[in-house]
Design goal:
The protein folds into two domains: 131 residues, no CATH class; 131 residues, Orthogonal Bundle (Lysozyme). It is built from 14 helices and two strands; from the N terminus they run H-H-E-H-H-H-H-H-H-H-E-H-H-H-H-H.
Length: 271
């Protein structure tokens, strides 16, 4: 359970003049941007331009590999939209294979390397993407593997279609949460939306705790404390005023606690 003083935080919200403000992007603004739905089609277009690879080919590979699923993981361990193996992803500079933009850019870079290796022969490049360039060299062409031969045919067929990849919302994976933690530790100015982000995330965390209470997994004293804190947050005038315009809640419990501690420290310093 979060260890905060809700009375102090409530007082902080009632004295908006005490909040630091900045013309630079706030932590909450950065989080909203990172958590907003992103167009996969736009990312494919960007990757196609970056690596001079037909966008239709990139989408066709993604369709065959993962059906445009940024969180896909194969039985062999391939990850993300373009189904990059961890070692391959690392060699391509992909630090988060479940970040759709990184994964697609990495896949585009890799297929570009294969196209250059095989003098623009798309079928050989696809065979290498699927079975490895070692097998292409070993068999002097498309390997006689049923999976690889079907893969090449499938991708070539998809490349002739007008595919739409759609949008996705970034997931709160471990690397993402670590980046948020660093942002919380590093940002210097507190804005009103930063505070609202904390309150919204805290409400969600308390709701989960209250559900545990209902299920009989909390002691009575802690139940009363949770209820009092939650009621206080529900009655927060600042939250009631603007919560409808603030919907981002991408923080883990540990990051909610960390952000709360930053506000608590700031409040204690101001007193």
């Amino acid at each position: 359970m979060l260890e905060i003083n809700p009375l102090d935080l409530y007082a902080l919200s009632k004295n908006n003049h005490s909040l630091h403000t900045s013309n630079t992007a706030s932590f909450s603004s950065a989080l909203q941007s990172a958590s907003a739905p992103q167009s996969l089609d736009s990312i494919f277009q960007k990757a196609a331009q970056e690596y001079d690879v037909p966008v239709a080919l990139l989408k066709a590979i993604a369709k065959a590999e993962s059906n445009f699923n940024p969180e896909a993981v194969s039985s062999a361990g391939a990850q993300g939209v373009m189904q990059l193996m961890p070692a391959t992803a690392q060699s391509l500079g992909v630090t988060d294979p479940f970040n759709a933009e990184q994964n697609i850019m990495g896949g585009a870079k890799y297929i570009k390397q294969m196209l250059e290796r095989y003098d623009g022969d798309v079928k050989l490049a696809l065979a290498a993407y699927n079975a490895g360039s070692g097998n292409v060299a070993k068999y002097g062409g498309i390997p006689p593997f049923e999976e690889t031969q079907n893969y090449v045919k499938k991708v070539m067929a998809y490349a002739g279609e007008d595919l739409t990849a759609g949008t996705y919302v970034p997931s709160a994976n471990t690397l993402y949460q670590t980046q948020l933690e660093q942002s919380i530790l590093n940002f210097e100015d507190f804005t009103e939306n930063d505070y609202l982000l904390f309150i919204e995330s805290l409400k969600n965390d308390m709701t989960s705790s209250l559900l545990s209470v209902i299920n009989g997994t909390e002691e009575e004293e802690e139940e009363n404390q949770l209820f009092e804190q939650y009621t206080l947050l529900q009655n927060n005038a600042l939250l009631q005023q603007q919560s409808s315009d603030f919907t981002v809640s991408g923080l883990s419990s540990s990051n909610v606690n960390l952000l709360g501690n930053r506000f608590q420290t700031f409040y204690d310093t101001e007193q």
